[in-house]
Structures are given as structure tokens and as C-alpha cells.
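Q: Give me a backbone?
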Amino acid sequence: MKSFFQIVGSVFAVLFTWAAYLQYNDPDATIWFIIYGLAAFISVLFVVNRLPFLITIFSCLLAAAGAYSQWRCRISRFYYWRRRYREY
């Protein structure tokens, strides 16, 4: 079972590296390159069994904070447009 997770980690490392490479023509490429690069780096650390628990916790908290930030922005924009163009 451990080798299965190492294979999955390797696949994710390759996919995140490829996604980081594809960001070169994006208007906000720097932030996405950093995000995908960190995900690829964490995947590689997982595959070679060198992923400290603290990095795991920190990356999960960082991902949760980013998701909340984006969710809050999009939800507030949705409710703004819903109130503005409400059909009576």
C-alpha cells in the first residue's frame, strides 16, 4: 500500500510541475507558479519520505486560508449581483 501512495505522490508531483510550467502566459503567473511549485515540492518530499509533520500542517492551513479568501470574495460578489438584479 505504501508503494501505491508513492506512485500517486509521484504522479501528483509531475502534474503540479506541469501545471506550474503552463502558467508562463497567465496574467498572474507568479502566484500560480509559486502555488503549483510548492505543491510539487511537497509531493516530492512525500515520495522520498522526508515530509515533516509541521510542513504538512502549515500547507493545509495555508490552503484552507486561501480557499476561504477566494470563497468569501466570490460569495459576496454573487450576493451583490443577486440583490442588484433581483427579478420582482
The chain has three helices and no strands.
